[in-house]
Amino acid sequence: MSVTTDGSKVVLTHPDDKTSCVTILNYGATVTSWKLKGQEQLWLSEAAKLDGSKPVRGGIPLVFPIFGKSKTDDALGKLPQHGLARNSTWEFLGQTKSNPPTVQFALSPEIANQELTKLWPSDFSLVLTIELGLDFLKTAIEVNNPSKTEELKFNWLFHTYLKIEDIEDTFVSNLVGMKLYDQLLQETYVDKHPVVTFHEEKDLVYKNIADERVIQVVRRGEPVHTLKRHNLPDAVVWNPWINKSKSMADFEPKTGYEKMLCVEPGHVHDLITLAPGESWDAYQLLYRDELKYQAIE
Ligand code: BG6
């Protein structure tokens, strides 16, 4: 069986290589583990809550309908940081393909966290498709506006926590020349650094990155993660470093920031607006590749 479920989580194992597998919690439809040829690719806090009491600290939480806290939209502004998808139990729709093993999860206001849908009474329908390749993990989202009369306004983001060996000798490439909003400095500027390095807390929201631009996480000249995006023009690069890690109760061990790096593809710079009946889709593809340093246009 390449797909098994115990009612609270779903595990996919690749039929041609049993050491490649992915685990998805129904809560938040959060990917909590992805092993590629036996090697874990995602970081998960040792104190992460996996019982539905709070969003998972690690793996791939899903951010919808708002990234951060909204300051401009009244209804979205009532929702907690990063919205309601990561705090809702999704419906497991089942397996849609046997090889590569592919499954789907769905979320709509009827089954989402009722405390939160009360705050944001919009209609929406989400379908998440997770495909486990021999050498990749693809997470795809389709957002539909089922309303007959109202527009649907939202952000989307895959809050991907990548596992790394050592933050101090790791960099992120192919973002040079991109405009970004620095959430710590609260300033917008163009990144002039050839690569993004980490020696302190970083919370950077890169904007309008073309689909063709792959983002790579490189350690000592070796690309350890490659990330392709479709329809996700923005990317957050986040490492909490020492003090912020201490301030998060579910972040353990406190030195965990050395072993993780969030690269989060999304559509967060502005809101996507769907007219009644319209839909929107996007995906993130994680895989290993050779070093691809891309020149800026
Ligand atoms: C990142 C944000 O996406 O998520 C950071 O850019 C934030 O500002 C981080 O601190 C973690 O957020 P949370 O809500 O999971 O603690």
From TrEMBL:
Keywords: Isomerase
Active site: 159, 264
InterPro entries: Aldose_1/G6P_1-epimerase, G6P_1-epimerase, Gal_mutarotase_sf_dom, GH-type_carb-bd
Single GO MF descriptor: carbohydrate binding
Taxonomic superkingdom: Eukaryota
Keyword presence, Ion transport: no
Transmembrane segments: none
Gene3D superfamilies, per database record: 2.70.98.10
Family: Belongs to the glucose-6-phosphate 1-epimerase family.
Name of the protein in its database record: Glucose-6-phosphate 1-epimerase
